Amino acid sequence: MYNLWISQCWHDSFTYIYVSAAFLQAYKSTTNERGYTMQTVHISKMSGKLQGLHSISTNTLTNPFCIKQNKADNGGICTKCYSVSMLSTFRKNAAPALQRNSDLLARELLTDRQVPFINASIFRFSAHGELINEIHLQNLIRIAELNQGCTFALWTKRKDIVNKVLARQSKPANLILIFSNSVIDKVLTKKPLHFDKTFNNVSKEHEGQNCTGQRCIDCRACYTHGGIDTIIEAFK
Ligand code: SF4
Q1: Structural domain that includes position 75
Q2: Mean pLDDT along residues 82-106
Q3: CA-based angle 184:187:192, to the nearest 5?
Q4: Ligand 1 pocket residue status of 86, Cβ below 6 Å
Q5: Measured from the CB, is residue 231 less than 6 Å from ligand 1?
Q6: CA nearest neighbour of 178 among 148, 161, 157
Q7: Looking at residues 171-199, what average pLDDT do you find?
Q8: Could you identify which of 46, 139, 167, 213 might form a hypothetical disulfide with 18, taking C-beta atoms 3.0 to 4.6 angstroms apart as the criterion?
Q9: Residue 160 CB coordination number (10 Å)
């Protein structure tokens, strides 16, 4: 009945290990009352720094933005992306489930029946992978809208997608947008339009670190409006 995966997950300089299980979705697809197969969103159970949280992620390896940033000759955090190296080598088996999410979330708007019920107080979007297109963001917003009891945090570098979508619709209060700064050791304190917080990668000796070594379930700074809005962590 349950479809259990062991995977590793990545966001910027973080490496996370997670068990991707039948948390709320027991199947990759379900059959509706008319007998049609309906694809469902894959939910990952996190561990490591994100122990105790769940996530909806996508496949970094097929995301054109990620591919371009990973190959860029600019020394940015994406050039050090563990997700790319892990999914290319020893975590190849995680890619199919993430790819199913890439296909499902970026192709068309989810029906309300496809929107998963999230039985948690905080939840991570895109622990793995980046926004693919406007439809992807619209679907994440819809998931937040239909799960008002949960606070979602989405990390993204795609200001262009955020600006286009949020010019047409409002951001739900239970979705916290975190701008993921790609420049190492250049802490961004000014939040871009629509963003609630910035996330910054620094080298080990850099001052002002307020995220390094913490667990998100204990800290929750990224899942709480107000408080710390400039997150700083040493990359590994
Ligand atoms: S600041 Fe806190 S909640 Fe945000 S990533 Fe770091 S440990 Fe997690």
Answers
A1: 5-234
A2: 89
A3: 110
A4: no
A5: yes
A6: 157
A7: 97
A8: 46
A9: 11
